[in-house]
Design a protein that fits this description.
seven-stranded antiparallel β-sheet, elongated, alpha+beta
Length: 312
Amino acid sequence: MSHRKFAILLILIGMIGCCGVSSEAMTLESLVPKEDVPEGWTLIEGPHIYTKKTLFKHINGQAELFFKYGFQKSVFAIYQDLKNRENQIELDICDMGNVLQAFGIFSRFRNEDRPIGVGLDSFFDNHSALFYKGKYFVMLYATQPALSFLREWAIKISSKISDPSHPPKEISHFPKNGLKPGSIQYFPEGLLGHQFLKKGFQGTYTEKVKVDVEDKDKTKIEGKEFHLFLAIFKNPQEAMSALKVYQDDLSKKGKISSGSIIEFETRAFKGGDPYHGKLIVLQKGFYLVGVVGFEKEEYAKNLLTEFMRNIR
């Protein structure tokens, strides 16, 4: 090969490499409405791309949380109402790497169940709209109340996302009876505050319990929250090891019950956690499945049985 042909080849390789990076950045940037913004609005800032190295400049206080959930990069833009300059909407679209991590960061930001049918799941109030679809987590914040308008904007962005990924399958394992809507969360580490549990899901449930009142002859019924959880490991051996660590930890800091839970026909134990209350933990394949913080053991066992049955 001549020196001239070799030089041309190097130039072409460099151009292909540059185009690849640019195309990847433009894929995220293309999700940002520009000319197709709703009538009466205009783009006044951005789009700005943020990477792992620069995200702290944009959301310094929350950057570490995003990193734990696999943050890859994001794009940011600001829109303004042409009739009222004080009325603005900020848009962040984050590439979280995969749908599990996108759901995870979404689950940490919503604080109740207020979906509006956008993306794979969503949360809306008068000033904000959050949703995830595929590997993307989208945040819209308005300076003035604009629920219907935020929904319109979110639908427009969601329609641009072609990622066909389904929600994490583990969400469907949680029994529906008693589940607090919008409460399932994914943690990439330290599930229930225990590092040995590593990553996994937890959902909040409500049971009715009797509570004493000032009049000693009376009681009232209240809803008490507790949790089902699903810790995920690489293989059954790692799950078995974590179960033993959990049991040893509880024997030192809490208590292990002598009661039988033979009905589950698997490795399991029950006891009391000093921070979370009563618990039952068992192994199924590469999962640890548990219920913690309950009052009525029979109710907790029934939920756990259904939970186990749902896990394929």
